[in-house]
Design a protein that fits this description.
The radius of gyration is 17 Å and the shape is elongated. It is mainly beta and 87 residues long. The protein is 14% helix and 36% strand.
């Protein structure tokens, strides 16, 4: 049991942030009269295979629209809006 917890904690500690470029669209609206540049933040997971190839998976169902610092108070989207990803 303890070994399982250690394995989980080790994998959890290896979680990291990375920059991934994704092209797509989403509608956002500023919440005040002050202009703001919006950014979309999404969850991604990269799966690495034994042959060295990797696949990046994007969770497009729960995008967060915010300013460059991650502040969501200046922008909003329609409820349940998904990110439309372009190839």
């Amino acid at each position: 049991m303890w070994a399982e917890k250690q394995g989980f904690l080790k994998s959890l500690s290896q979680v990291q942030q990375s920059l991934v470029t994704i092209q797509g669209s989403i509608d956002a609206v500023g919440t005040s009269f002050i202009p703001v540049q919006g950014y979309v933040f999404v969850e991604t997971t990269t799966i690495e295979f034994n042959n060295g190839e990797s696949l990046t998976v994007v969770n497009s169902s729960s995008p967060v629209v915010a300013d460059s610092t991650g502040d969501t108070s200046k922008l909003s989207t329609l409820p349940n809006q998904k990110l439309s990803i372009l190839n």
